[in-house]
Design brief:
With 394 residues, the protein is of the alpha/beta class. The protein has helices at 16-30, 58-62, 69-84, 94-107, 135-144, 156-164, 181-185, 190-197, 221-229, 245-253, 271-274, 280-288, 303-310, 341-353, 355-368, 374-393, and strands spanning 2-7, 34-40, 51-55, 88-92, 112-115, 150-153, 172-174, 204-209, 235-240, 260-263, 291-294, 315-318, 333-336. It folds into two domains: 2-178 and 373-393, Rossmann fold (3-Layer(aba) Sandwich); 181-368, Rossmann fold.
C-alpha cells in the first residue's frame, strides 16, 4: 500500500502527534508498505526509515485561508500525488492542513482519514485551549472535518467531540496511542537508573514529564509539594521538559525547592537515540521513578501516561477528559478533581504508604499496555485504511 502522512508539524518537534506519526510510519515501512511523511521543513533531516517530503514554508500559514489556499498548498499536494500515486492519505492534526486539503481529496476521489489529537478538536474554555473556541476556525472545522472518509479517535472524549461536530459514528475508528514496550524491558534497573541520576536509593521518586503548557497544570506542582511535605519528607519530584525552570523558581519561592529537580532537556544519545521515542535516557528516568503524577486540565491520549504505564508506574492525576479515559480510579491510578492539589497530595501519600495498593495498581498498568506496542497499533491503522479503501471502491 502507498501511504501519505500529512502533518503540519513534525520532527524534531516531539509532541504526541509527531511521535505517533513517526512510529506508525516506521512500523508501516517495516511491514513492506511505501510510506511518505509530508510536512514543513524545520531542521536538518534525521536518519529515518521513510522519506519526508517537505512543503514550502508559506504553506503552513496560507493553508488556513480557504480562498487562496489552492495556489500555495493544494498545488503542492497535486504534484506530490501525481508523482507518488498514494492509495490513501492520513492527515494528523486537522487544522489547518485537514481543512485545507479535504476539497483536493474529495475532488480527486482519494481515500482520506483524519486523526485529531488535541487542540484541533478539544476545547477547555477555562484556559482558552482549543482552536474551536475561535469562530472562523470552528466554522471551517464543522464544515470540513466530517467530509473525511474516516476519523481516528485516540480517546473516548475525542469520539464525543467528533460526534458533536457532525461526524457520523460509522466513520469513527478507535485506535489508542502505542508505546515502544521493548525499550522498557531493555532499560537499566531501578537502582542503576537512580545511581546515574544521583538520587538517594531510599527516596520515593515522583515523576512528571512534559513541556510547561497551561493545560498541563504544572503550576500546581509547588503547591502539591508544599502540601505533601507537611506529611512527609522522604520524596523527590523529578520534572522533565522544556519551560519548567519557571516551576522550579515557584517551588523555591514557596520554600520547597529542595524537593524538586528540574531537567529541561536530556542529552543527545547519538543517532539511534534521536529517532527513538521515548529516548533511552528518558526510559531510564521512568524506570528510576516510583509513580507518575500529571496535574493536567485536559489531555488527548497522553503519550507520557502510556509510557509511564509501560514502565509500571501507578498514575496520580486529575479526573478530566483524556485522563479518565485512560486511568481508572483505584485500578490503574488515583484521580482527584482538577486544581485539587490537596487531594493530589493525599493520593500521592496514600499510594506511597499502602504497599498492597501500590503493587496491585502496578500490575494493572502493566497489563493495560499489553497489545499497545507500535507494531500492533500500526496494524490497526492499516486495517482502517483497507476498510476505507474498500468502502470508497463500493
Amino acid at each position: 500500500m502507498k501511504i501519505a502522512h500529512l502533518i503540519s508539524t513534525f520532527l524534531p518537534s516531539k509532541g504526541g502527534a509527531e511521535i505517533c506519526v513517526h512510529n506508525i510510519a516506521s512500523e508501516q515501512t517495516k511491514k513492506g508498505h511505501t510510506v511518505k511523511v509530508i510536512a514543513p521543513k524545520k531542521s536538518a533531516p534525521l536518519p529515518l526509515s521513510y522519506e519526508v517530503i517537505h512543503l514550502k514554508p508559506r504553506s503552513v500559514f496560507l493553508s488556513a485561508f480557504p480562498f487562496i489556499r489552492n495556489i500555495y498548498f493544494v498545488r503542492q499536494l497535486e504534484r506530490i500525488q501525481r508523482l507518488h500515486q498514494f492509495d490513501i492519505w492520513q492527515v494528523t492534526i486537522g487544522y489547518p492542513f485537514g481543512v485545507a486539503a479535504i476539497d483536493f481529496f474529495r475532488k480527486n476521489k482519494i481515500p482520506c482519514v483524519l486523526r485529531c489529537s488535541g487542540e484541533d478538536i478539544q476545547t477547555e474554555p477555562e484556559i482558552k485551549y482549543g482552536i474551536r473556541l475561535r469562530r472562523w476556525p470552528n466554522f471551517l472545522i464543522r464544515r470540513y472535518y466530517p467530509q473525511f472518509n474516516g476519523h481516528i479517535s485516540i480517546i473516548d472524549s475525542i469520539t464525543r467531540d467528533y460526534l458533536s461536530i457532525g461526524v457520523s459514528n460509522e466513520k469513527i475508528f478507535y485506535i489508542p496511542n502505542g508505546v515502544n514496550k521493548g525499550f522498557f524491558g531493555a532499560a537499566a534497573d531501578r537502582d542503576t537508573s537512580r545511581k546515574r541520576l544521583g538520587i538517594d536509593a531510599f527516596k520515593k521518586v515522583i515523576l512528571t514529564v512534559g513541556r510547561n503548557h497551561s493545560k498541563k497544570g504544572f503550576d500546581k506542582i509547588p503547591y502539591i509539594i508544599k502540601s505533601l511535605s507537611k506529611k512527609r519528607d522522604d520524596f523527590v519530584w523529578l520534572l522533565i521538559g522544556r519551560g519548567n525552570e519557571k516551576i522550579a523558581r515557584m517551588a523555591r519561592k514557596e520554600g520547597v525547592g529542595r524537593f524538586l529537580v528540574v531537567k529541561e532537556s536530556l542529552t543527545d544519545g547519538g543517532t539511534e537515540s534521536r529517532r527513538d521515542f521515548p529516548s533511552r535516557e528518558l526510559v531510564d528516568i521512568y524506570k528510576a521513578a516510583d509513580l507518575f503524577v500529571l496535574p493536567t486540565l485536559i489531555e488527548g491520549c497522553s503519550t507520557v501516561i502510556t509510557e509511564a504505564m509501560a514502565a509500571g508506574l501507578p498514575i496520580i492525576s486529575t479526573d478530566v477528559d483524556g485522563v479518565r479515559d485512560m486511568v481508572t480510579h483505584n485500578d490503574t491510578g488515583l484521580l482527584c478533581g482538577k486544581h485539587d492539589f490537596e487531594g493530589m497530595a493525599e493520593n500521592i501519600s496514600a499510594i506511597m504508604d499502602d504497599r498492597g495498593l501500590y503493587k496491585r495498581i502496578k500490575r494493572n498498568v502493566l497489563a493495560k499496555t499489553e497489545g499497545l506496542d507500535w507494531s500492533n497499533v500500526a496494524d490497526k491503522y492499516l486495517n482502517v485504511y483497507e476498510e476505507i479503501i474498500r468502502r470508497e471502491k463500493g
